[in-house]
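Fold sample X.
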Amino acid sequence: MAAHRVVLLFVVGVVRRGGPGTFHPAVSVRAYVSGLRDTCRTIPAMTHRVAVLALDGVLPLDLGIPARVFNEARAADGSRLYSVGTCSIGGRPVRTREDFRLVVEHDESLLETADTVVIATQEPTPQLLATGTLPEDVTAVLKAIRPETRIVSLCTSAFLLAAAGLLDGLRATTHWTLCEAFAELFPGIEIDPNVLFVDNGRILTSAGGAAGIDLCLHLVRRDHGTSVAAAAARRCVAAPWREGGQAQFIEHVVPQDADRSTSATRQWALERLAEPLTLEGMARHAHMSVRTFTRRFRQETGLSPLKWLAQRRLAHARHLLESTTLPVARIARACGFSDPVALRRQFHTYVGLSPAAYRRTHGVPGVTAGR
């Protein structure tokens, strides 16, 4: 979602100069326009407004994730693309899950003007787990969010969205340890315990801990493109892109020696995305059987080798669409897709846009690229 910009329309009438009946409209309009240009240069574009809701029992680390990520998303001139504010019900201090309270700057009225609302991680209360219902004040706050506002839950705050009816008929995720309880409470919602986040367009949910960072970076990438998101990730010293479909729980294996890791083969594959890479070829490069290579690859990345390869190819295609004017057919070949149709199919499935539409939104401004 692009940053909002304000267009000011001034209706300028003739200006009386001198005595009665003497008008110099041309001179007056030029003077006004010249002055308005100088004035408009000082008015910055409006940033995308993010409101973070903190409720009692909030996890302090998770509460800080949205501001940390969104505040690092910068335009080419270094200006921030998002403004982030934190609120609580009544503007009261918030009791965290740890041994301290937090004072916030805003009350729940902040949610009424936000472009994106983030519900910071709050573990479901015994009442919520037992009945699937929320306290009246929390229900009222969630109902006050505008219908067009994007809503994001971090980790177990998906329970709040579900209890408020915001996830009915949708797919969602939450922390894997509570997915079974979620499914029992809300059978009308498809819960997926095996992903980092789920993007339904307006409503997004994420898994636990670091998955909140992944989801916020995903939103920056969705709003402003891969380059802006990657720069924000570098400032946060975070992984620039972990696809939403990656497994929540990854058994990170520390190899006894470098020869038993798949990292060298992953780097080798990244340098050959245009080539027709196969699972057998990757296993052969790693000096492993296909079965051993697949098992270790999944342990280290949370993905199968071919799914990881498909994601890397798609990421490279997005980067080329944003940063170059290469025709789509040439980008498809450079990223290892069999033809432009295959690339378009991947974009429609995972990005929701055609490559041409994605380029118009996130590509080099003012440059017409080949199709």
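Fold sample Y, listed below.
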Amino acid sequence: MPGILPFAIGSFDTIGPLSRADFPHRHTFHEIVYVTGGTGHHVVDLTRLPLLPPQLCVISPGQVHYWERASGLRGWVILFTDDFLLAHPEDRQLLRRLGERPWLRLDGAEAARLRALVREMRDEFDQRDEGFISVLQAHLHVLLTRAVRLPGGRRAAAETELEAGRASVVAREFAQLIARPGGAELSVSACAGQLGVTVGYLAEAVKQSTGRTPGRLIRAARTLEAKRLLASTELTVRQVARHAGFADPAYFCRFFRRETGVSPGEFRRGSQGIHHVHRSESIDPSDLSA
């Protein structure tokens, strides 16, 4: 929806009830949770981990998670779509690395630095002064870079229930494959061949882990690459089409409009400041209260 920023930040209270949902659910956007207080457990996919604040957790799109017997939950929730990463596309790799790790524990100094950074992000988001989009993108990049440096949280054997199986591994490898340069140009069958599985198994594994089909994720990856080129280069639409793997510029324009609701030219004109985002990929904190 035009005008809705693909980013939101707030406390567990201000973001809405779903931020502390005690039933399994998943999102189409990224979620970073910084817990500063509370007891209970957080379950991500099939791994159950105790709350030992201060802690940081990155939840990837499609991951199933929920809070189990959580009490006194305090902290911050940061939500954003892939479109918000157009200024720092390398952050997608940082997010993948963080999404594969369990809860990250912070010591006193790390917690203080992170708390100050998150508060700056909240102030920028609330005040929305000139250039606040770029400031938020820069702060998010700093947050992810610092988070990758943190030592991985240790899981107590008694707290770890079921480990993700082969299907989750295949789904993760598929996501990494299509995120590589040129990866989104591969067909589903080509991806299955490179991963050493059948097309049927790949479809089942990806659907189980993300709630979406491999074809849908490939289209999303191609769309994101086209958005990045339109927003950050001066390539013509024909050149963007070629770089995004489309031999026919007319087909590319039809594809882009179908996926985003706007033409490549309209997206480029709207990508100054706040990038135009299709309604289904936008984040409105009030949506999380439903």
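Sample Y note: The beta strands are 7-11, 30-44, 47-50, 55-59, 65-80, 104-105.
Also: DSSP finds eleven helices and six strands in the chain.
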